[in-house]
Amino acid sequence: MPNLRKKRTCGFFKWADEVDNVLDLQMLAIEKDTKISKLEYERDVLKDKVKKLKQTTTELEDQIAELAIENTEKFHAMELLDDVMDDVLGGDDSPYALFQSCIVV
């Protein structure tokens, strides 16, 4: 049986002459599209993670600010208490130290 499938090269379809199997090119294109889709998905996941981390950072900064305000208020209250105790005790700090250690604990 003669070979009915001969390669014809007319130069018009150079890409068809150089590539034996068009399916190989189609598979390469599909693989690249799949890889692009995966990378886009990973990018979207990372964007979501960044968004969540920024939100968490903002929440933590707010909590730190609230704690700083509370600590400042406590510090001013302790200073006021210290001034009152100095006036009451007349400079003897030993009972006050005991009292203050009970408050801190």
Question: What's the SSE blueprint?
Answer:
Layout: H1 14-18, H2 22-89, H3 94-104
Descriptive keywords:
single chain; 105 residues; mainly alpha; 3 helices; 80% helix; rod-shaped
Description:
With 105 residues, the chain is mainly alpha-helical. It has one domain. It contains three helices and no strands. It has helices at residues 14-18, 22-89, 94-104. The longest helix has 68 residues, at 22-89. It is rod-shaped and about 105 Å long.
Mean pLDDT: 77
Largest sheet: none
Q: Find the structural class using helix and strand composition.
A: mainly alpha
* CA-based shape: rod-shaped
Number of continuous helical runs: 3
Relative helix content: over 70%
N→C terminal distance: 102 Å
Radius of gyration: 39 Å
List the helices and strands in order.
HHH
Number of domains: 1
Strand percentage, roughly? under 5%
Tell me the number of strands: 0
| Low-confidence segments | none
Concise summary:
The protein has about 100 residues and is mainly alpha-helical. About 80% of the residues lie in helices and about 0% in strands.
